[in-house]
Amino acid sequence: MTVISNKVKSVLGVQQNFENLLKSKDIDNLVRLMSYRGTEVEEALKEYIVDKHKIVSRPDKIIKDAEGRVVRTEKQWKLPIPYQEFINEIAMVFLYGKPVKFSQTSDGTDDAYKSFLDIVKETRFDSRIRQCKRLAGAETESALLLHVYKNDEGQPEALLKVLARSRGDELYTMFDNYDKLMTFARGYYLMYDGKAVKHIDIFTKDIIYRCKKKDLGWDVIEEKNLIGKIPVIYFRQEKEHKGVQRLIEREEWIASVNADVNDYFSSPAVVVTADVLKNMPEKSEPGKLFIKDSKDGDVKYLTIDSAPELKKLELEYLEKQILSKSFTPNISFDQMKGLSTISGKALKQMMILAEIKAQKHKETHDELIDRFISLIKSAIANVLDIKLKSQVDNLVVDAQFQSPFGEDIQEVISNLVNSIDSGMMSEETGRELNPYINDSQAESKRVDEERKTRREQQGDVFGQGF
């Protein structure tokens, strides 16, 4: 109890200090109270961006003569391999390759649910969530900002903006002891008369502070947060290629050295025996000539082994370890060209590594999607469509992740029909699970109307017959 009490006092103390700094407009010290992961993000970006790989800084080779004078500079190959991007993209596709499937599980909330789906579509949520996941996998963090505003006609609208360091944003966070987001801040620059000016927007559940840097101090404008929640979904994770960076760097080094060796020996070189070596071939020459003095002259081609066995084995080992230890299936043309007729279930089993990784991500992304649902509901009830507030309060929305390969639809429908016929499942549940049906409630109404029409038509026919 003492430990818990001290932690609570610590959080309250930080919060009080935070509020005092806001009142005094001391924004510089205020953001120092918040967590900023700029160093970790920059290191992750260096590994992710191909042109910043360590192998790119490999120096060229300086050729000197016997007296130590520089003769020329020989280019050394620098071949970065974009493993990080490949690993990250596979992880994103297996989580959000197919849009999140939302469904309504409450009664009497159809209008509120329709408004929710309209906002999901209008804000391009499916696209934005994929961008956030891709950026978080590369940089270790990103954020999705919900912005509400009035359009040209004076009506409230909403948009989603993706925030990340690579997009010019600085992300600051403050969590309590239960990992609940207390405050979020976004730093960015805007141009004024050719000069970049620092801005920081600080979001709390009640107030949004718009801060603009001056020559001395800050201008701070307070705005009421009409949504009633911090309008940000914050993504944080380990980089997707965590644990395999050194293996990637080793493979890049071997590939670059191999390229240098190929430049020296890939073109035929003629060797003429002699006692004293007269000249050495240069790397850039298409043909090379070695001359020696000897009584019995001999001329032959100089060749090297095309692929030393140890080096070949190491390259195969590195590729296998990089992909397997990052939970990434080996998806290549040769691997996939014979899978055109394979079922979705079998393909899913072949991609089990990526599926395992996706299931791990769902542990946190389930919570992020739930927070998004809660945020949109608050935006509808308090800003976008206030007349639906009572429905929104009762609205329950469920979200399910979908496999990028889908299911064997014929098998799914067959199983649904058998379950309905055996009495184990209702027709309504069967329609909800049917992959061909997007709106089960609307489909049920259409089916009922068609049945009613057929009964009336059959009644007319039998009535005329008698």
What does this structure look like?
The chain has 466 residues and is α+β, with helices and mostly antiparallel strands. It has a domain at 416-466. Helix content is 46%, strand content 20%. It has helices at residues 2-23, 27-32, 38-48, 83-96, 110-122, 125-139, 245-265, 309-325, 333-336, 344-350, 352-384, 389-394, 409-421, 427-433, 440-465; strands at 35-36, 61-64, 70-74, 101-104, 141-150, 156-163, 170-175, 181-192, 195-203, 207-213, 218-224, 232-236, 269-272, 288-291, 299-302, 397-400. The strands form five sheets. Strands 1-7-8-9-10-11 form a six-stranded antiparallel sheet. It has a three-stranded antiparallel sheet with strand order 6-5-12. Strands 14-13-15 form a three-stranded mixed sheet, with no helix packed on it. The longest helix is centred in the C-terminal third of the chain and has 33 residues, at 352-384.
* Overall geometry: flat
Strands ordered across the widest β-sheet: 1-7-8-9-10-11
What is the distance, rounded to the nearest whole angstrom, between the alpha carbons of the first and last residues?
86 Å
Major β-sheet annotation:
6 strands, antiparallel
The SS-based structural class is alpha+beta
> How many helices?
15
Helicity range: 40-55%
Unreliable stretches (pLDDT < 50, length at least 5) are 4-9, 275-279
